[in-house]
Amino acid sequence: MTTYPWQHVARSGRHSLATLCRSPLAEVSGALGDLGTLLPLMAALALQGSISLSSTLVFSGLFNMATGLWFGIPLPVQPMKAIAAAAIAERASLRDTVAAGAIVSSAVLILAVTGLLRRLAEVVPTPVVKGIQLGAGLSLVISAGGNSLLGGLGWVARPSVLDNRLWALAAFVGLLLTQRMAPVSSSSSSSTRALFLPFALVVFLIGILFALIDHHHHPSHLMPHFDIWTPRIYLPHWLSSDAWAMAIAQLPLTTLNSVVAVSALAEELFSPSALSALSLSSSTLTPATSVTAFGCSVGAMNLIGCWFGAMPVCHGAGGLAAQYRFGARSGASVILLGAAKLLFGLFLGETLLDLLRAFPRSLLGVLVLAAGLELASAGATLNEGGDVSYSATQKRERWTVMLMTAACLLAFKNDGIGFVAGLLCHASYRLADALEARRSRRNRLRRPGHDESSALLAS
């Protein structure tokens, strides 16, 4: 039966609304789960003029709302990390930064509409995809301990009494205490749901309060005030060597982690059996989780936003895992987040810069840590589920492929190298299987009764 786009959007909207009414705090908390990735990168890029903060808020908000309605899952809209990191390090111009995002998106869009992305997802072994997720998760954990977040904190007064290791420790204890407080239970009992604490929402509100207090002690910082957004057109610097260098570094990350890996994770988290376990009817919604759909989404977002100075964005397995970890179970979470971004971008815009800069790194670091752990945990299901039963040797080989992928990704800080290393490791095992099968066939032919000369002597 053919489903028209407006019918799919309507069904997705009903599903999101029902989930929001069922667990409003969980959806709001889940919407904030990816802030640990978004806030520091967006603020750093905006402060040095590599993007327009107001345009980024407006367009990423619109993209959040559109993807929430279409996909029906808490699909994140997050920065392209390789481009963001390079732009921050090199203090790239706005025209170079948006050009890099548009170049990557053009390549991904071409791969998606030609079906090459789908073919890639079909042929990439599951252990390699899981290895990318594991490596990306551990990368987030490592970045949480970096100097820009938790690693640069002191115990009491560095950088301030409201942003230090003590607050990070308190947030971490809170994270541990809420590990088993599931936002949506398979049980319908109200007592089970009453245990849920919207951790990300609480941390975000405390962070905003601390940032406002910090503003009070620094008169030079501007408080957010009404400043209506005025669209401005920017021409991307298409021929910039810096833009192409950033794009080439980003392309493997976007293709593998933002399309292939996020598709695999979405299918795992929102399959009919998973929805049933969450007491959500799988007949209510069949989420669109194909790599082609995700690839087209990434392409469309940046080819629109780049003309207005918006930050290059993509989807990501880490962001999806983070929002799921903190309670999001439908598109309602990202629709709410998108609406908030849109309002902030339209009416506050660039005046939010100092507030973003003052958000405590101690709290952001714990959010990033939790997101990384959630994504890395996807590797635990490598040999579970499905109709295939693996031998002990096969399980060990699959774990080795996954770990090889993750280890090389971490060692070289490059998804592409991890991907190739995982494929080579997988290929070496398949080659060994083929050689072993060939050797076995030869041995069978040489056995008495199978050899031609033995048959003649026997006669």
From TrEMBL:
Spans through the membrane: 57-77, 98-117, 137-157, 164-182, 194-213, 291-310, 330-349
Any Pfam family matching the protein: MFS_MOT1
The name this protein goes by in its record: Sulfate transporter
UniProt entry keywords in alphabetical sequence: Membrane, Transmembrane, Transmembrane helix
